[in-house]
Amino acid sequence: MAWGAPSRERRVLKAGHSSIAVTLPKPWAEAMNLRPGDLIVFDQNDDGTLYLKPAPLPGAVAPGAPYLVQARSFDTPGVLQRLIVGAYRVGHDSIEIRTELPIAPDRVEELHQAVRGLLGVSIVAQEPNRVVLQNFIDPSKYGLPQLVQRMKMILVAFVDESEELLGRKGRSRRLIGLSEELNKVLALLVRQLFLASRDWSLARRIGSPDPRQLLEWRVVVHALEELGLLLGEAAEELNAQPSALDAAAAASLRPVFADFRENLKEVVETLMHPSFSMACEAFSSSQRLQEIARQTTRAMRAPVRKTPMYAAAMALQRGAACLTILSEVALDRAVSAGNQTILVAAP
């Protein structure tokens, strides 16, 4: 049942001697995991409308309270950066770091690097033993479809850069910037999903009108993350020794990259605008691409299999499998959005 399926009209009922009541839509109550006896809170808007949401659980952190990280010191490289990224991804707006020993200069640089890799985050206080980070992004301004389209543009840029590397002898200067941009958008996408899972009103505003669609969005984001890793890996392999690339293998890979780019665009377009016929075509194209990539990898001669060219071909093959997963989600969306199924004639 879609989120908007229940009737928007509810009859006011008498409850007790002097009270009145209105029942809640069953899909909403189920999505909120509400049970008899649970508490809900409400706010009254100026126009008379009410905003309802489940009451916070006992012991829950108050909204706006900083996420506190306390440690004697941070000695292991990467731990502090991952803690900051993790706190951001799960939805914390304010992150406070406290240590008993002063933060070492290399850890301070690590902290600044983490902040540069997150959209909307700034350092608002910095002391030898204390640092406070604040996120200034309004989540309602970043829709899930908008961010997925941005991810598609970055992934297409990876494909374009890899295709150019097959025909030139110099190294690419764009890969570092593309990787940084991909990580920023991906972190924001994950953050949006976490926030939407806790606030259905936000979920509707950013492109998930039915709360159960968030499960689909998680699959989509995970597949896009895997695609980013694979296409980045393929580009880095080709960028490692561009002057040593095998000409014959490069010629066999170019059409695979071209097909991959077109299928990627087709699949994302179908995800954003579900259509049964388009979804079927995208699924078939993904299946064909997967087979073409597999055949191209198998056809590479033994000496080539120890080169970056073969690693790039394998990454494309695995990336085609991710596109197939996304096309399957597109099919699911197309079926759930319509009331009929069109049988596709067998070839």
CATH homologous superfamily title of the largest domain: Phosphate transport system protein phou homolog 2, domain 2
CATH class group of the largest domain? Mainly Alpha
Q: Give the domain tally.
A: 3
- Compute the number of helices: 10
Which strand order do you get reading across the main beta sheet?
5-6-8-7
Structural class: alpha+beta
Mean pLDDT: 85
H/E element sequence: EEHEEEHEHEEHHHHHHH
Low-confidence stretches: 1-6
Mind telling me the C-alpha Rg?
25 Å
Main sheet, how many strands, which sense, barrel? 4 strands, mixed
Structure description:
It is a single chain. The chain contains ten helices and eight strands. The chain is an alpha+beta fold and 347 residues long. The protein has three domains: 13-54, Pemi-like Protein 1, Chain: D, CATH 2.10.260; 67-135, Translation Initiation Factor IF3, CATH 3.30.110; 141-337, Methane Monooxygenase Hydroxylase, Chain G, domain 1, CATH 1.20.58.220. A four-stranded mixed sheet has the order 5-6-8-7, covered by helices on one side. Strands 1-2 form a two-stranded antiparallel ribbon. Strands 3-4 form a two-stranded antiparallel ribbon. Strand 5 (67-71), helix 2 (79-89) and strand 6 (94-99) form a beta-alpha-beta unit.
Summarize the structure.
With 347 residues, the protein is of the alpha+beta class.
